[in-house]
Structures are given as C-alpha cells and as structure tokens.
Amino acid sequence: MPSRDGLRRRSGLRPTRSLVVKILVLAVGKLRDKQFAALCDDYLSRARRHLPVDVVEVEDDAALARKWPTQGETVALEITGESWTTERFARHLAERMLRGGRAITFAIGGADGLPAALVARANLRLSLSAMTLPHRMARLVLLEQIYRALAIIRGEPYHH
After folding, report:
1. Which of 4, 6, 50, 124 lies most in the core, judged by the most C-beta atoms within 10 Å?
2. Within a domain: 160
3. Strand partners for 113
4. Residue numbers of the domain that contains 90
C-alpha cells in the first residue's frame, strides 16, 4: 500500500515492465580532492547497483554545451530551480522508470553556475538547496540523493 508520499515502503516501487533509465551527471570541473572523489565514487557505485549512472566531467561551459544531450530529460541544477523533497525526487525517477524515459541528464555548472542558454534548453530546473553550494558539494549531494531515491523506490532501508 502506498504511503502518504505515494511510494510503497515494503516492496518498493518496482515496476513490472520497467525500462532501464540511464542517469548521466554532466559536471563542469574535475574533483581534485581525493576524499571528495572517494565519497562521490561510493554513492556512484551504490546507485549503479540499480541503474546505469555515469559522471562526465568537462572543462568549461563550451564543453558542457557540446556534451548537452539532444534526447531524454535534462535537469539544470541551479539555486533558482524547483525545490523538492527527497520523496518527490524519488517519485520523479520512479515515473521515468515506469513511463519509459530512457535518459536523465543532470547538469552541474562551474563556479559561475550554468550558462543561461543551457538552462533555457533544460526540461527542468532543480535546486539542491536555497544556499549556494560549491560544484563539488553539489555533485556529492546529487549522487547521494540519486542513490537515496533509488533505495526508496526499491523499498530498501537506507531512507528513514
């Protein structure tokens, strides 16, 4: 039975006809801090147990524009985007899994954020926090939330 947030807790929201959704994180800049990289890699490997998830690092905005996908859903991460709960984020991913969305790309800008032209091309603008986050912190929070959302969908005990 669904809970108040619309997701089944015991068995998870495991679609019988689910299609594989590939998640791509496009990020301006490289993680130079080994401890941050290790934390990101940990959540990335956890999420990959459920879905294909990749991170592509690019040098600058021009490289980001070249990598911007022409198909699938694109989500621009920026401070003025919609603010969602973790449960709402999980529902969004579950809907994409149930309705056959093939790819979701999350774009994280560099120190100056995402260029307005790319934000305009995004299907969705999402905020991870009302506070300004360094891009490396935004990447860590996003990867953790992707993993947490997948755990919620599957009814795993990670999310309380």
Report:
1. 50
2. no
3. 110
4. 34-153
